[in-house]
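Researcher: Please generate the 3D structure of the following complex. Treat every line as part of one assembly.
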Amino acid sequence: MSKFKKKKGGDLPPVNTASLPDIVFMLLFFFMVVTVLRNNELMIRNELPKANEVEKLKKDRSVFIFAGEPSRQYQAKFGTEGKIQIGDKFTDVSSLQFALTEAREKLRPELQDRVVVALKVDKETNTGLVTDIKEELRDLNMVKIIYIAAPGSELDN
Amino acid sequence: MARRATPEVNAGSMADIAFLLLIFFLVTTTIEKDKGIARQLPPKQDENVPPPPLKQKNIFIVSVNQNDQLLVEEELMELKDLKQAAIDFLDNGGAPSGSPEYCKHCKGKSDPSSSDNPDKAVISVQNDRLTSYRMYIAVQNELVGAYNQLRNRESVRLFGPDFVYTDVKNAINEGKYQGNVDAAEEKLKQVQALFPLKLSEAEPKKRGE
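Model: Done. Output below.
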């Protein structure tokens, strides 16, 4: 009886934390590798519409076009009409071709012919603006586009 | 020899430093989730060339007005019914059996007043310039969904229950497909040919027209 009691009363051995730094480092490296620091600040509101019949975007051959109404701190300057942003500046529909050609030249040369234009457009934008962008894209012969969408379905709400 | 042993560096705070960095990267990371509806724009058309003639029954007209309301084949429709309506139209197979346009794989009602076969059937979407982009994507999503559902059905019929068109296509895109990718792509093409994606977009109407 006394034997049994003695065992139970023994001190709990401290948890060995020697491998904690290793685990933390492992996590750290994982996040360091997957992190992409944003290099173009968004100057527009960019809430994507929802869709579920989606395909994955191949990032190495894509050019991004953002569109939507300017975010609050830019509204005094640029108004609330839908605007197009490429890189980190606003672009007009008329100068879109130039901006796109410039953006395409930043891609790897062997992928420039297979460029995919990714449209990230705010869901409250008018379709007319998107139509204008598409007309310009057809003029440039960049006909592969992808409408970036958030996962989900518009039918749910 | 007066060589003193170098004192061991105290590594006790290593974990703290690593945690600090870890939390920084945790906070700044946004795992990019870029997925979307891929589409090929039609090439620029010569304006002098008239468009090829299409029979009225082979066109499925979807129009959206500036209040985001749907008009499908002259009837007001809810978004949730659009997919089924599009499937019924594409899968109709209205051409009589024996004619060269007869559709063998169609399972629809064979209504002679609807589309002849999926190859002839064209879905035309007309937007107002003031339609919201949310609605535009929702409509496109439903229509692509209709095509995908029909293609899934055909791929399962032709190549067995493990070959679901959308699953295989996504697996190939992500490089996760187990097995012969070229053969699978060939099969996908066959399925695509049964229900070719024919979505046309009409020039949008001007404000309030």
